[in-house]
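G., the chain you wanted modeled:
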Amino acid sequence: MLYVLPVAHDVDPRLLRVFLAVADELHFTRAAARLHLAQQALSRDVRRLERELGAELFLRTTRRVALTPDGERLLPYARRVLAAHEELAAAFADPGRPLLVDLNTEGMASGRVLARARELAPGQELMARYESGLTGAAADLAAGRLDVSFGLFGGLAPRLRAPLSHQLVRYEPLAVVLPYDHPLAARDRVPLAALAGESVYAGAGNPRTTEWTESARRLFAAHGIALAPPAPMAVGAEEFRRVMAKTRRPVLTVVDFRAVPDTVLRPLTDPVPLAPLSLVWRTGLRHPGLDALRAAAAGLAREEGWLERGAGKPLE
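Predicted structure as tokens:
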């Protein structure tokens, strides 16, 4: 006679995904927003998981949420189970489906990587979108609404990095955009020391680009440069030109940025600050288009020395 031993716990991966969101955020409201759930539904799922495991996973007070020892013990298992679940889903996914790639801004290194990838994999459909900010893209990547993005991976909050993988593509030299008649516009290059006392815009107030703003904040603090206060992001060349003419503030960017009318772009020096640009995707994603993007990035880096630092200093 065949005896089948009962399985102690047949845990729904969806409940583990809810658990990880709360564990990463340590805040039920933020976790619910991240998963696009009502907070009541999220709380119900957490209680259901606790009942199934026979363990309390979170300590909840009116002021804070914290993992219990059992919650800490579950955390690495939950990550491994969900990673395996993603790999299983990817293994049977349609390799011919379009791959959605966020390039952030037109005319940058990311666009060159995409163009090369399309040459390497002409049978794959690699669709581009342009929505600035890796912080904003991270939730879409984790949820499968977006496949690939580019940005400062190290600048993401740990909770946003957790479900993602990355490949360093390029150390991008930084620059500033200046009004054409700004006192520093006459220079071919602008030493960081020359910006001391200036108020430089670096995306403050834009929740999609916090990784860029925080990296800039650390760079500016080391050189006596003020971070310009929060302001709405100017979208489009004409709006950028208008805001630049009104505020007259330098704007931090990379050397490939296309300057707009009535502005000039000047590389930064002494030392040359470098932004570590990464190709970023959801861990477990399998797709020929991703393979092509990774090969394209590695090839361009070799051919053009994108990973050579020289005298430059990467952002922290």
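The CA atoms of residues 93 and 286 lie 8 Å apart.

Shout if anything looks off.
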